[in-house]
Amino acid sequence: MTVILRMAVGFMGNATSFLLYAAPISTFARVIRKKSTEEFSCVPYAVSLLNCLFYTWYGLPVVSYKWENFPMITINGLGILLELSFIWKAGIMTTALIIFFSIIALLSTYKFHDHKTRKQLVGGVGLIASVAMYAAPLVVMKKVIQTKSVEYMPFSLSLFSFLASLLWLAYGLLGRDLLIAAPNLVGAPLGALQLMLYCKYRNRAMVEPKPAQEWDVEKVDMKTSKQHLQIAAVTTDDDINEKKSQIINS
Fold it and tell me: What torsion, rounded to 10 degrees, do the Cα atoms 44, 96, 52, 152 define?
């Protein structure tokens, strides 16, 4: 019964994760339309690619026992294709991620010869990548708080991130696999926080506060101008007094 329930949760996790990975399609359509990346960063998508690479490898029989984590292979394999399509122009970063993954994959295949050790290696690195993927939106959340606008934090991305984290957390706990459950203990609260921020700022227009440095420059300029006027006034008075003295003496 537990195995069936776990597989059902895994396939529901597949559905929500697909929506999560596909959510940026509208964002990239906007980038293509405007021919500008604006405030969007490719880093979250690069981290997501690394997460997908490691958990696809983790789910394969090379690392896991037979096909016990088959749902992870299907969704993360699809995630690799989607994330690559999003960041294919970031050639150096993409190449570096693939090289790093290849090194870990080769080590797990030829250096270690039992499933337990392979799972610890691949799952440990995948856990770090997964936590980084869920933590990446913290930069966007900071932007939301500063501007009081959710323009750069789509609701669909926040919602599916929260739902996917909950489902994969349940999947990991049902299979007693902490390497799957652990990163989602971070992802679920962060997803909930994104949703709360969205609810708070969804109806507010973007505020672009004037940088403090500009005000400081204006103050300095005003102060400098006053000093110049004072110096000019003193100089003029001195000239007048000197001319009066010359007239009297003559």
Answer: 10
By three-state DSSP, how is residue 120 classified? Answer: helix
Is pLDDT of 230 > 50? Answer: yes
- Stated pTM of the model: 0.72
Instruction: Work out the number of other CB atoms within 10 angstroms of the CB of residue 55.
Output: 29
Give the helix, strand, coil percentages of the chain, each rounded to 5.
Answer: 80, 0, 20
pLDDT-derived band at 158, boundaries 50, 70, 90: confident
Who's near 76: CB < 8 A, 6+ residues apart?
Answer: 17, 51, 52, 53, 55, 56, 59
**If you average pLDDT over residues 78-95, what whole number do you get?**
83
Helix (H) / strand (E) containing 104:
helix 91-106
